[in-house]
Amino acid sequence: MTTVVLAILTLCSLSLKSMNRLFLVFSMVSFLNSLPFSIVPYLER
User: Fold this and answer.
1) CB 3.0-4.6 Å disulfide test: which of 9, 14, 15, 39 passes with 24?
2) 30-40 burial code (b ≥16 CB/10 A, e <16)
3) pLDDT > 70? residue 8
4) Which carries the bigger pLDDT value, residue 28 or residue 37?
5) What Cα–Cα distance (Å) separates residue 11 from each residue in 21, 30, 31, 39, 41?
6) Which domain holds residue 7?
């Protein structure tokens, strides 16, 4: 799980550096998709 978080933080920093909002949104969606399905409904509240 720690490796995934580090990968997302790296993607976020790269997307901010390139000012690519679509890439940032894509990385966030990928992170949400990697979460357990039991936690996703809790976050959507």
Assistant:
1) 15
2) ebeeeeeeeee
3) yes
4) 28
5) 11, 11, 11, 22, 25
6) 2-44
